[in-house]
Model the fold of this input.
Amino acid sequence: MENKKYSQYLIPSLIASVFLSTFVLFDGMFVGLKLSDIGLSAINIGWPIVAIMQSFAMALGISAGIYISRKMGEGKIEEASKAKLTSFILLGIASIIIILLIFFLRKPLIYLFGGNSESYKYAEEYLVVYLAGGLPYMLATALIPLLKNSGKSKIALISSVVAIIINFTLDYVFIFLLGWGLRGAAFASIIGQVVSFIISLIFYIKEFKGVSFNKKLIKELFVASLAPFILNYSYDVILAITNRVAGYYNGNEAIAAYALLTYTLYIVNSVAQGVGDGIQPLFSYYSAKNDKETLKKLLYKSLLISFFVDLIVIVGFYLLRHQLASLYNLSDESLKIYLYAIPFYSIGFVIISITKVIASYFYSISRNLFANIITVVEPFVLTPFAYLLCIPFGFNALWWSYLIIQAALLIISIILYRLAERK
Done:
């Protein structure tokens, strides 16, 4: 029974997460074929800003899911039911605020995240379309974990698959047939997410059974969303930092090479995230029951699945590295940089398959401090420190230092897990 329940949560979540990660991958492929390095560079600059919306929505959806699962485990069914509509309304309000803030701050944000005079106009047209469709985009993103916590993992999967099919089809129409460039890539993604939102809402609206705007619930939802937000967005902070360093040394060619590396990372990260988020309801449920033995079994099983699935993905991407470079239309200079960096990144990607699941486990059992340490230390401590190696060792240190960062993060994650086991 336990294995059946595990599979019911894991498989739809894993597939949905991977499908969601392919939005930017397909955008990059079509834009790369049409605009080459400058297009890939602009997406890599604009995406971390879009990801603020995505990560916040996903985080609030996950925190609401954790709260609902815990209340269910405690037998407080009415509180869990009211939290569903309450969290959805709060997300809508918060989404509008975030969209407006990003819109008015878009110029400094683009330059902060690696933009320059050449790439700015492309990154801006990509971003503005996402902001125009930001509300349904954020609501659709948040509904994925909420549907999973309501036992509707298959609906979450279906809505994700439909969205990516629409996105892929419209990417071709808007970018190649109509010549809309980056604007077309963003429109294709937004239309896919609008359809996903409609499908998800049709099924989730049945869960709305009252509202409870008490201060304790609101505070808990937003405080608990901090760890998953950092976990989801930490990658994009690293993306922004790397864009700036790469652009400083080798301009848009280096950012374009890094963009192709990040597309592999999107898939790797999504596998680990999909495993962790998929099993989150079970982690939270058994944590509320203080069933430590079951929690340990679930964690070890999740780590093994994440490791082996990601290993297959990484080996596949590495073996096809030349074909991918051709598919994304990298220039000769970008190709040279990409081929030098990919061995270091491939090994680092394997480590991510472990550390992401451990971080997801921590916030699922409300060990937010440990989850925050894992997620904060990489973008704000390890990455800036490692990139200082570029000063004495030059531009190539940007790539091999990534392996050092991931190795250090794995050691920190294992130490924190051992500490958690003792308490």
Summary: The radius of gyration is 21 Å. DSSP finds 15 helices and no strands in the chain.
